[in-house]
Every structure is written in structure tokens, then in C-alpha cells.
């Protein structure tokens, strides 16, 4: 049995008991769960993935050394691409938010890059 309880504006508490297999109960619970999930997802911060320099250069359609040149510019330079330094240049990472910020400052007509889906390792599909 499922119990649905509500309180009216007058303070009257109403409880209704229904069998679990009733279609209306199942549909109402699914809608309520979906609404709560949407609310919780809207309140959570979005991830800010970090990309290695070759991958960031690929996303921006630049050569990796050109991208590194942008990373070496002085802090106050408008074309500087901010990054998270690693232990070596191979460990440098560029956040997606920094890539989008750099695009806004330098190429206002370009579409912003969306976060990539999870990458799977394995064999590549055959070339056609």
C-alpha cells in the first residue's frame, strides 16, 4: 500500500491509501521523482573538465605550439590562455571554462566548445 498525505491551507491533514499497482499512484510517483531529480541536477555545479594541450589545441583547431605560445604571453595580455601548470609542460592542463573565456575574448563569432562526452578506449571503427 502507498500512503499519500497532504495538508490543506486550513491545516486539515488528508491521507489516502492506495494499492501500489494503481496506475495513477505509479505515474504520480514517477513525475514527482523526475521533478526532484531535475531540481537537484539544476542545483549542482557543472564539472569543468581539464584538457591536455594537444587535446585543447585540437578543440580550438590550433597547432599545439601555437596554443603554448598563447599560454606563454604575459598575464595582462588579452590573448593569453590561462592554464593549470603541471610538473612539466606535458602536465599542463587547460580548463574548459578557460577555453570558452579565451574564445569570447578573441574569436567572438566562434561557437563555444561543449564538454566532450566520456571517451572510451578500444579499437577505432573501421574507415569507410
Q: Low-confidence stretches at least 5 residues in length (pLDDT < 50)?
A: none
The proportion of strand residues reads 5-15%
**Biggest sheet architecture:** 2 strands, antiparallel
Shape: elongated
Structural class: alpha+beta
The rounded distance between the terminal residues' Cα atoms is 57 Å
Count helical runs.
4
Mean pLDDT: 79
Total separate domains: 2
Q: Considering DSSP H and I runs of 4 or more, what fraction of the residues is helical?
A: 25-40%
Indicate the radius of gyration in whole angstroms: 25 Å
| Strand order in space, largest sheet | 1-2
What is the ordering of alpha helices and beta strands? Answer: EEHEHHEH
Mind explaining what this structure looks like?
The protein is α+β, with helices and mostly antiparallel strands and about 130 residues long. The chain folds into two domains: about 1-45, no CATH class; about 50-105, no CATH class. The chain has helices at about 25-45, 55-60, 65-70, 95-105, and strands spanning about 1-5, 15-20, 50, 95. Strand 1 and strand 2 (about 15-20) form a beta hairpin.
Short summary:
This protein is α+β, with helices and mostly antiparallel strands.
What's the helix and strand layout?
Blueprint lengths: L1 E6 L5 E6 L4 H21 L6 E3 H8 L3 H9 L20 E3 H11 L22
Antiparallel strand pairs: 1-2, 3-4
Helix pairs in contact: 2-3
Amino acid at each position: 500500500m502507498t500512503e499519500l498525505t497532504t495538508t490543506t491551507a486550513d491545516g486539515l491533514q488528508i491521507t489516502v491509501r492506495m494499492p501500489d499497482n494503481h496506475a495513477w499512484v505509479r505515474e504520480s510517483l514517477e513525475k514527482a521523482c523526475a521533478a526532484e531529480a531535475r531540481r537537484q541536477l539544476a542545483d549542482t555545479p557543472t564539472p569543468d573538465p581539464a584538457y591536455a594541450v594537444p587535446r585543447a589545441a585540437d578543440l580550438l583547431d590550433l597547432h599545439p605550439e601555437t596554443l603554448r605560445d598563447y599560454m606563454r604571453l604575459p598575464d595582462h595580455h588579452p590573448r593569453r590562455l590561462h592554464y593549470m601548470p603541471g610538473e612539466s609542460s606535458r602536465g599542463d592542463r587547460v580548463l574548459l571554462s578557460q577555453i570558452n573565456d579565451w574564445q569570447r575574448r578573441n574569436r567572438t563569432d566562434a561557437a563555444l566548445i561543449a564538454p566532450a562526452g566520456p571517451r572510451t578506449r578500444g579499437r577505432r571503427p573501421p574507415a569507410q
